[in-house]
From TrEMBL, chain A:
UniProt keyword terms in alphabetical order: Cell projection, Cilium, Cytoplasm, Cytoskeleton, Dynein, Microtubule, Motor protein
Function summary: Force generating protein of respiratory cilia. Produces force towards the minus ends of microtubules. Dynein has ATPase activity.
GO cellular component, one term: dynein complex
CDD domains: DLC-like_DNAL4
Protein name, as recorded: Dynein light chain
From TrEMBL, chain B:
Keyword NAD set for record: no
Subcellular location: Cytoplasm, Cytoskeleton, Cilium axoneme
InterPro entries for this protein: Dynein_IC, WD40/YVTN_repeat-like_dom_sf, WD40_repeat_dom_sf, WD40_rpt
Comp. bias intervals (Polar residues): 186-221
Family per record: Belongs to the dynein intermediate chain family.
Gene Ontology biological process: cilium movement; determination of left/right symmetry; outer dynein arm assembly
Assembly, per entry: Consists of at least two heavy chains and a number of intermediate and light chains. Interacts with BICD2. Interacts with CFAP45 and CFAP52. Interacts with CFAP53.
Function, in words: Part of the dynein complex of respiratory cilia.
Protein name (record): Dynein axonemal intermediate chain 1
Primary localisation category: cytoplasm
Pfam family for this entry, one: WD40
Biased composition (Basic and acidic residues): 30-44, 121-135, 238-247
Length: 106, 695
């Protein structure tokens, strides 16, 4: 019992420590990057249990803000190879277990 | 036949007639048109009567009796086609049962009527609107019933097919009868005329352009839990490191500012990229501007020398001066032995009351406009020497007593070595520095002499300048003489220094009281010889380039003296009637030397030609300007003289000043140092003999 409690505590610690967004790769300009990152954080926090809704929200907001044809992938494990318009890609981790990839390609 | 009984009479009285059954309507309207065509077709009223009855021409004419005859038709409510024996299956009784109720109604035709009763308000209103046409219509209606009446029985509508056939038969007839009777076109409700006009369409034009698609890129990655975890851990570690760094940088803010300074310096290197090319360009421009001087330097030989006998002249070539060194005088000159066009100039002041900054500049003959190198110094430069083998090393002595070594290869205005008070710096101005050949450990070393009476050897070891006192000058020539306490006050001031060309340990020191000491590196306690040379400080003392025994000295007591170091009286004495600042042996002849004086004059002597008078006396600068130094170029027949205005002038020696001794016919032209030594020796022996005889 003590062991599992410890594990849980560790997990909680990990989650707490790793709650910040971590940009892995991006070629966006500074301003856009910050805005996109904040949007992703907001969406992931709002739909903490529903990645699809979060992705939908991000996609729609991005379409509105930066023009159409944005694509968003959110998940805990996936691989991808995408073609994107330059200066329109953001790949980040969030919350210790989520990977978010946002890119634009029309 | 259950034909609906219609009161035709009534229908015909109304304007817009529409009877049940297409055939009868057509027939009626045709008939009517024929009858009342003349009346009806005047003006726009025609439109109102558009739907009048027309009677077909082949209508059966009936007599009055026939018309009046009543034909009785009975309408029954029974549908003759309705089945009489419909049976339905009754589930109740499990058998078919005839149904009693039979639907008798059959709808043949439904038309919503537009008929109005004559006496109704609506009809009256309509009539009032149409005014006078009413009469004609009413007249028409009276005639009509007679003809109309028999039509109904004659054309009974049995089924649609027959009616259509009848219509087809009728049409050509009616058309023929119309054309036959009247030219006027009869209007009917089906006769439409469409009017249309077409305008010219604007020509279409297509324009299109294509833009480049926005640039795209491919990106691929794999996200899974361990990668995310690793990324986070890495980031956390980085953050921790940054925190540590920040702490470190806060404590080392001073260092940081230093780094910034370094960065600033390196940023300036952008300009240095084009430095080389711009330097070349500057030289080209300079060469172009001073082309005549360059030509003179290379080719001009003064033709007038032939008529002058033995005297020669000096031709002014380039002037070198640098605006950054204004109000400084030339205090030292030295040619670079490796690059014969390059020479160093020490700038500063000899004036005790006007001490301040100094400068070390390097000029090339290829560019007289701007120095090759510039090293500003805090104190006046008083002397300098360029290393013979390592021509990038320059030893410099300063007025403040320090010595320094500059490395031309190193960027930056600071010397690579500099003596400090801790490392044996002189306490008085350093008057002469001379490089020596490397010591046994292959360390470079040089000697300096100063007014504080010390002759010091400096050795360049790694980053340090290590000093060794070689000798301390005393007025009486020996340290042992005199009491200890008076020693301090009685040190002599060294003003010049020169090493023997061949004998490594032998050197001469000129002093402020006019004596010249011959010293050895190995005996620090005493002088080998002391020459009472001048009554004023010795400005320069120099060994002959060729003859090992001969040296020259000059002083502000107006004299230049030539010595044999084995004899303590001068061999030659020349009085120039003005203070002599510097003297130099020529590198090409053992008997030629030149001296500069404070009245701006250069004196060139050739003992081989004239033992008493100079062969050239020429003023090269303004009378008020004093010349301070002179140096022969080791290769080219030119000299450089520096003045107290900070200007260096290069002069070309005319052919007479560098004339080789005449050779006897048949003899091989002797050359080399032996000849030069012999030449000097000959002169000296001439002098020695009488001396020996007298002595």
């Amino acid at each position: 019992m003590a062991g599992t409690a410890e594990v849980k505590k560790e997990e909680a610690d990990y989650k707490r420590m790793h709650s910040f967004p971590l940009i892995r790769h991006t070629d966006m300009p500074e301003e856009m990057r910050v805005e996109t990152m904040e949007l992703c954080v907001t969406a992931c926090e709002k739909f903490a249990t529903n990645n699809e809704s979060a992705a939908k929200m991000i996609k729609e907001s991005m379409d509105k803000k930066f023009g159409s044809s944005w694509h968003v992938v959110i998940g805990e494990g996936f691989g991808f190879e995408v073609t994107h318009e330059v200066k329109n890609l953001l790949y980040m981790f969030f919350g210790g277990s989520l990977a978010v990839c946002v890119w634009k390609c029309s | 036949m259950p034909v609906p009984n219609i009161n035709v009479r009534k229908a015909s009285t109304v304007h817009k007639v529409s009877l049940p059954g297409a055939k009868s309507t057509k027939a009626a309207s045709k008939k009517k048109d024929e009858d009342e065509g003349v009346d009806a077709h005047d003006g726009w009223d025609e439109w109102a009567h558009g739907k009048a009855l027309i009677k077909p021409p082949d209508q059966v004419e009936l007599t009055e009796a026939e018309l009046k005859e009543e034909v009785t038709r009975v309408l029954t409510a029974n549908n003759p086609h309705a089945p009489q024996n419909i049976v339905r299956y009754s589930f109740k009784e499990r058998s078919f049962k005839p149904t009693s109720v039979v639907d008798q109604m059959a709808v043949l035709f439904v038309l919503e009527g537009s008929l109005l009763h004559q006496d109704s308000d609506e009809a009256r209103g309509l009539r009032a609107k149409e005014g006078r046409t009413e009469e004609t219509v009413t007249a028409g209606t009276e005639a009509e019933p007679d003809e109309e009446k028999p039509e109904t029985p004659a054309t009974p509508i049995e089924d649609g097919g027959e009616a259509e056939e009848a219509e087809e038969e009728d049409r050509p007839d009616s058309a023929a009868s119309k054309t036959g009777k009247k030219e006027l076109k009869v209007t009917n409700q089906f006769n439409f005329s469409e009017r249309a006009s077409q305008t010219l369409n604007n020509p279409l034009r297509q324009r299109s352009c294509q833009t480049e698609p926005p640039p795209r890129n491919n990106f691929s990655a794999t996200a899974n839990q361990w990668e995310i975890y690793d990324a986070y851990m890495e980031e956390l570690q980085k953050q921790e490191k940054n925190k540590e760094k920040q702490k470190a940088t806060q404590s080392k803010s001073v260092e940081k500012s230093k780094k910034k300074m370094l960065l600033m310096e390196t940023q300036n290197d952008d300009a240095s990229k084009v430095r080389k090319s711009s330097k070349i360009f500057e030289r080209m421009v300079s060469q172009n501007i001073y082309d005549d001087i360059a030509q003179d330097f290379q080719y001009f030989e003064d033709a007038s020398d032939e008529h002058r006998g033995q005297e020669g002249t000096l031709l002014c070539l380039w002037d070198f001066h640098y605006d950054g060194a204004k109000r400084l005088s030339v205090t030292a000159l030295c040619w670079n032995k490796k690059y014969q066009d390059l020479f160093a100039v020490g700038m500063g002041s000899y004036n005790f009351t006007k001490q301040g900054r100094g400068m070390l500049v390097f000029y090339s003959l290829k560019n007289s406009a701007y120095p090759e190198y510039i090293y500003p110094t805090d104190s006046s430069v008083l002397c300098l020497d360029i290393h013979e083998q390592h021509s990038h090393l320059v030893a410099v002595g300063f007025y403040d007593g320090s010595v320094a070594v500059y490395n031309l290869k190193e960027a930056g205005p600071e010397p690579v070595y500099k003596s400090t008070a801790k490392t044996g710096k002189h306490t008085d101005p350093v008057w002469q520095v001379r490089w020596q050949s490397d010591d046994m450990d292959n360390n470079h070393n040089f000697y300096s002499v100063s007014s504080d009476g010390r002759v010091v050897s400096w050795t360049l070891i790694k980053n340090e300048l290590v000093f060794t006192d070689i000798i301390t000058l005393l007025p009486n020539g020996a340290i042992s003489e005199g009491p200890e306490d008076s020693q301090q006050a009685s040190t002599a001031c060294g003003t010049s220094l020169d090493f023997h060309k061949q004998i490594d340990f032998l050197f001469l020191v000129g002093t402020e009281e006019g004596k010249i000491h011959k010293c050895s590196k190995s005996y620090s306690s005493q002088f080998l010889e002391t020459y009472v040379a001048h009554s004023w400080p010795v400005d320069a003392v120099k060994w002959n380039h060729f003859h090992p025994k001969v040296f020259i000295s000059c002083s502000s007591d107006w004299t230049v003296k030539i010595w044999d170091h084995t004899i303590n009286t001068p061999m030659f004495t020349f009085d120039l009637n003005v203070a002599v600042c510097d003297v130099a042996w020529s590198p090409y002849s053992s008997t030629v030397f030149a001296a500069v004086t404070t009245d701006g004059t250069v004196h060139v002597f050739d003992l081989n030609i004239n033992k008493y008078e100079p062969i050239c006396v020429q003023q090269v600068v303004a009378k008020k300007t004093a010349l301070t130094h002179i140096e022969f170029n080791p290769i080219y027949p030119i000299i450089i003289v520096g003045d107290d205005q900070g200007c260096v002038t290069s002069l070309k020696l005319s052919p007479n000043l560098r004339k080789k001794p005449k050779t006897k016919k048949g003899q091989d032209l002797p050359k080399g140092p032996e000849v030069e030594i012999a030449k000097m020796e000959k002169l000296l022996s001439l002098l020695r003999e009488p001396e020996q005889s007298t002595g």
